[in-house]
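Question: Send over one sample?
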Amino acid sequence: MGKYFGTDGFRGEANVNLTADHAYKIGRFLGWYYTKTKTEAGDEPARIIIGKDTRRSSYMFEYALVGGLVASGADAYLLHVTTTPCVSYITKIDSFDCGIMISASHNPYYDNGIKLINSKGEKMDESITDIIEKYIDGEFEMTPLPFALKDKIGKTVDYVSGRNRYIGYLISLGIYSFKGIKVGLDCANGSSWNIAKAVFDALGATTYVINAEPDGTNINRNAGSTHIEGLQRLVVEKGLDVGFAFDGDADRCLCVDEKGNIVDGDGILYIFGKYIKEKGFFSNNTVVTTVMSNFGLYKAFENLGIDYAKTDVGDRFVYEYMSKNGCKLGGEQSGHIIFSKYATTGDGILTSLKMMEVMLSAKKKFSELTEGFTPYPQLLVNIRVTDKKDAAADEDVISAVSRAEKKLGTEGRILVRESGTEPVIRVMAEAKSTELCEECVYSIIDTIRSKGYEVKE
């Protein structure tokens, strides 16, 4: 990770550690860099597309980015409020030089982020973000960058048609009619609020939607995949067949079965891995997971004769492994699921469509699709800290981790890691019992607190 760009872009509290000035400079650099590349090959401006989520600050960052882009000679195309996977899809399909998504995903409204996407619809190469960081800090060799002049100044183009085309693409992936199926959708008051229902309605579902009234400050607030209890209540109270919860930029999806039980990313990987194994669609028989996936998932895959790989946490690492090794399915427990045949990034709405496909193909209730997968008890606790690197490297914290590992032996595991997007240490344990998980996790959390690293709010 760089100084500003982590595993999922440049993220921070709006106007604190991510400012409009940062956005303007990112726009200036990208506009100059890609226009320079295009000019060397011919004489046309770079074309860069921008999407945003529903945070109040997203408009500020959008305007700042556009100002930088056009000042450097690039044309800025605006998708307006849309999802991260939409930006990824349109960047690739419409041959844009790069894409920008303004979002802090599942973070609270006062945070925001700038995600950069290359021309293939993939996360931007670190070689480019490293140069952008140097430019932001005034250390790039071409600083100051030249301004575009006269007719070389870029223009802004309304490109809402791209978002509509993405909606059409999602609808085209629904191979079964959803008629007669009652579906709950939790849009987190975020990017999916005006997309998910349109897709499910077009495919014939009877939809029940919650948290689809964004006001700029309610994104992810007691809503979406990080607060799924509202969807659980909706599914049970309305007698729905299934529910799907998205996060702020809709690159994640978690499911709720007809009984109100949560099916997380591991469950989704199991359901679809088993499905394509049975259908004979599994070209290399390998599902790509991260180190956060549950022991129970691996045991279930072994019983099915499915191979698996483990990567570091982050859908960037999952996708990189999938690309290098020709894998069709991968993802994270948090709900970032990548279907490489259809997308280059996690796509929450696409994931929900694929779960509908399995349910309708099998002609089973959603709860029946997870039969054969029994997760180990698992506990994950996040602790907000003053310095995540210092906390993770503290000798007393390391000793506490070692003691917990000895207690678990070969019947479980401890994972302590720094968040790639927040000032947070994540402590996770898996064991034969919930009580043992709690004992191990909180012994480490208490040590972090005792050393004074915890942020008091």
User: Anything to note?
Assistant: The mean pLDDT is 94. The chain is about 40% helix and 20% strand.
